[in-house]
């Protein structure tokens, strides 16, 4: 038997607008269509600046914001949403899940933090979860191998794809790192 946090109904909320800020256009479009079918009034933005512009015009009741965008950090959009509507429920999405960014997202006002790829059901559960109840564990969490792979690739990207610098920072041999980088991501 699953122990799930009870969900609130979307009909309980006056403001059903949902802002989705993500620079991955196909993902954003798919998520927007799915969330519209669930009853949300969806607004979209593909950058930090466009996200901020939408927030100034329409103060969303809900938001799904990618952490890493082409023109900056999604936390800037979260700050803008929180300053315009402190009751807004914000979910951070990222392909690079780690503890410091999760803590930063929560401090800025996000109510949850999901790793990509998150489907519409995961997003809906996170947005409508009762904040006074403990969240249910994820159905399909990332494996330990996948978490390790994500971390290595994140450091690699932060080092501007420099293998030697990445190996030095991860305290591993350069050839070992090259072998890991040449493999596909684990499930």
What this model shows, in words?
The chain is an alpha/beta fold. The protein folds into two domains: 119 residues, Rossmann fold; 39 residues, Arc Repressor Mutant, subunit A (Orthogonal Bundle), CATH 1.10.10. The chain contains eight helices and seven strands. The strands form two sheets. Strands 2-1-3-6-7 form a five-stranded parallel beta sheet, with helices on both faces. Strands 4-5 form a two-stranded antiparallel sheet. The protein starts with 16 loop residues before the first strand and ends in a 5-residue tail after the last helix.
β-sheet strand percentage: 15-25%
CATH topology name of the largest domain, in short, is Rossmann fold
Report the radius of gyration as a whole number of Å.
18 Å
Mean pLDDT: 82
Low-confidence stretches: none
Task: State the helicity in percent bands.
Answer: 40-55%
User: What's the shape?
Assistant: elongated
Number of strands: 7
The main pleated sheet reads as: 5 strands, parallel
Q: What's the number of helices?
A: 8
Q: What is the H/E order?
A: EHEHEEEHEHEHHHH
The named CATH superfamily of the largest domain: Response regulator
Q: How many separate domains?
A: 2
Second-tier CATH architecture of the largest domain: 3-Layer(aba) Sandwich
State the end-to-end distance: 25 Å
Content-based structural category: alpha/beta
Order of adjacent strands in the largest pleated sheet? 2-1-3-6-7
């Amino acid at each position: 038997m699953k122990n799930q946090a009870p969900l609130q109904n979307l009909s309980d909320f006056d403001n059903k607008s949902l802002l989705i800020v993500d620079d991955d256009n196909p993902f954003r479009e798919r998520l927007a269509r799915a969330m519209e079918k669930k009853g949300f009034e969806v607004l979209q933005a593909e950058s930090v600046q466009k996200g901020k512009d939408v927030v100034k015009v329409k103060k969303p009741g809900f938001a799904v914001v990618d952490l890493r965008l082409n023109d900056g950090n999604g936390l800037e959009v979260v700050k803008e949403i929180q300053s315009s509507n402190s009751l807004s429920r914000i979910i951070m999405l990222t392909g690079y899940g780690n503890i410091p960014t999760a803590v930063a997202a929560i401090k800025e006002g996000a109510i949850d933090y999901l790793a990509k790829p998150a489907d519409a059901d995961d997003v809906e559960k996170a947005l409508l979860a009762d904040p006074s109840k403990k969240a249910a564990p994820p159905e399909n969490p990332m494996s330990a191998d996948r978490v390790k792979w994500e971390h290595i690739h994140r450091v690699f990207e932060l080092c501007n794809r420099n293998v030697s610098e990445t190996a030095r920072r991860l305290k591993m041999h350069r050839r070992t790192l090259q072998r890991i980088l040449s493999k596909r991501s684990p499930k």
